[in-house]
Design brief:
By secondary structure, the protein is mainly alpha-helical. It has four helices and no strands. α1 crosses α2 and α2 runs antiparallel to α3.
């Protein structure tokens, strides 16, 4: 939004600065992460229909809360992103000696 202001640097300029200056990029990303907490607070105020935040139009307010939730998940994945649980499974190879199998095999073993 700041880059849309004609008196401020444009989006491409800011992205170039970030590419050229790793420290600026880190500070920019940290500020974006911190800003997600403000987005979370605003989304809650809209959801609670607090005057000055909620518009009174249920569908529009619901859309705003959804958009803010998506933006905060994108900007701060560590805090607001989807959690994925991974199970670590070890597989061991099994070699079957077909000469030791007795019976007809198949379903009628």
């Amino acid at each position: 939004m700041i880059c849309n202001d004609p008196s401020m640097p444009g989006y491409q300029t800011v992205m170039q600065w970030k590419r050229e200056d790793p420290e600026l990029a880190a500070r920019f990303n940290a500020a974006r992460e911190e800003g997600t907490y403000a987005l979370d607070d605003v989304a809650e105020l809209i959801a609670r229909k607090v005057p000055g935040f909620a518009t009174g139009d249920f569908r529009y307010d619901d859309l705003l809360v959804s958009v803010l939730a998506q933006r905060k998940r994108y900007a701060n994945r560590k805090r607001f992103g989807d959690k994925v649980q991974m199970d670590v499974v070890q597989h061991q190879s099994v070699i079957i000696d077909w000469n030791t199998i007795e019976g007809e095999g198949g379903d009628g073993v």
